[in-house]
Amino acid sequence: MRPVIVRTVAELRAMVRGWKAEGAAVGVVPTMGALHDGHLSLVRAAQRDCKRVIVTIFVNPKQFNSADDLAKYPRTEAADAALLAPLGVDAIFAPMPDEVYPEGFATNVSVGGISTRLEGLHRPGHFDGVATVVTKLFGMTLADRAYFGEKDWQQLQVVRRLVADLNLPVEIVGCPTIREPDNLARSSRNVRLSPEARTIASALPREMAKAAGAMRAGGPVHPTLDAAKAALLAAGFDEVEYIDLCDAETLLWIDELDGPGRLLAAAWVGGVRLIDNIAV
Ligand code: AMP
Fold it and tell me: Is 126 labeled as catalytic in the residue annotation?
């Protein structure tokens, strides 16, 4: 059966209050729709832990720093509902933008430090948009647990920082990245890759795995990162915005490995911006 689609905060709240009165734990999976196996893995994780699960679908204008990217972002609500139907989620919360940002909306949630690096440098305002909408979704859904993908590693760390700093009563659960057979991370933006760009895209996980292996084996950090960047450009990427080794939690750049590190990259191919990250 297709899950019920809820459009307003008032309806959502009434539904969740009923579940809570029955003692049910509530999980939320925030998404921007155009659902794929990556999103579905978060839903399954939520269903393992929580009696009631809400999937939110909202293409959040505040987290897009490019009007073109916002306009081109795929919107496939009917297909999303059909994908979720066999999983038996309890509700889809898919509000219109003015339900989330009504006339007079004036608050911005900004997580310092971590939000300014990597994606934050290249997409100014992006994490303020994410932190603001995520804070609102927690307040709207009253969820006990929220599920985020490691695919967006920096986002996951920003949300953890936000929840700790503001004492928000929600447990954040990170879930592993789901990949295609050639290891390209599943992403809603992959549908925009031409067949040629799709072939080139597989160089991203391949070169990242190679670089991570070399650094784990004690290889020098900066020459290894430079070689990975050169290999991506040689494979056909148009631009590498960054490929950096960072502390896995703070995302500060590190020059050598002395604890859990994360290799993170963003690169353009055929007009599409891809991001990925792996443990080092
Ligand atoms: P998005 O709809 O792209 O905003 O993503 C919604 C959630 O799904 C975020 O927590 C993402 O990190 C997560 N997600 C997206 N792609 C993947 C993937 N390939 N594997 C695991 N989680 C993912």
Answer: no
